[in-house]
Amino acid sequence: MRLILTLALCLAAGTAVAAEPPAVAIANHSVPTLCAEEDNVDIRLASASVRRFRLEAVHPAAIGTIVKDITAPDFTDCTITDREDFRFTPRDVVMFEDERIKVLGITFDKFWRPEQVPFSIAGGRTESGFHLVQLYRKEPGRAPYEALVIYPVDGYWRLKPRPPEHLTDIVYGTSALIGPIEVMQRPVVNMSAIRFDPATLTFTLAFRIGGTAEVKVVAIDRERTALEVAFDRPVEGRPFAGFRSMYVTETNADSARLEWRARGGRRWRESPVMDFAGAQAVEMRLGRSVPSRHNTSAPDHRVFGFSE
Description:
Layout: H1 2-18, E1 24-28, E2 41-46, E3 52-58, E4 86-87, E5 91-97, E6 101-107, E7 110-111, E8 119-121, E9 126-127, E10 132-137, E11 145-151, E12 156-159, E13 175-178, E14 182-184, E15 186-188, E16 191-197, E17 202-207, E18 212-220, E19 224-231, E20 241-245, E21 247-249, E22 252-253, E23 257-261, E24 269-272, E25 279-281, E26 283-287, E27 300-307
Parallel strand pairs: 8-16
Antiparallel strand pairs: 1-2, 1-25, 2-20, 3-19, 3-27, 4-7, 5-6, 6-10, 8-9, 10-11, 11-12, 12-13, 13-20, 14-15, 16-17, 17-18, 18-19, 21-22, 23-24, 23-26, 26-27
């Protein structure tokens, strides 16, 4: 009887391990900087089989201690070099609005890349040339809240949950990349088109090197803003997602620590972001454990739920 019970427990344990999500390779390409306005943190995720995952922006551990948010730019020890950005005619276009959401497309007067990516609303209009698309969540009795932005020309996403009760707003910090990452001066995701379906809150991305992804907004609340990502096929030969952020010191950073859990692991592992040597993981969190004097309220980011 004892032998049967032992075998049953072993089989159950083996089933639990087999049921775990696949691990992805996490690589650290970060470089040191003294400038708090430089995205020097560069984390990339790769897998030849993963097609689905979940990305969340969540409040940092210190959110309840923030009395006054610090959001002003900090150019201490920054060397600013003039760059010949490409020029455009500025404009703001409301692409969609109802009682739930508002989608606003913005063209800046200058941007670092000349490409233009068509952005369309399902069953509605199509425009090209936006450098930023904002998604606002609307609730009765409240001003619309900006919870998500995407930069169509370089593929950067920024997310933030609703602010806690004691703050009127919070700021963005870390950026996420979703899709096949290419390095063109910096890591980018090149897209040929973006389509948004207001009924399902789903972005459909067409990538320039081939393939598509559906990015569905599944939560915008005081705990998190969350996206469910589904590729039509695995991204092979290059990272399928990544994070860009800033780190000068632990108290002057948008992201300072990386936490991860290995497949079958019974504990979380942790590392200062600049010391992280890479890992295979089924879940990862990039964030801060102490308040920062730069973008104090900026959210942490969590990626998990990998699936083939």
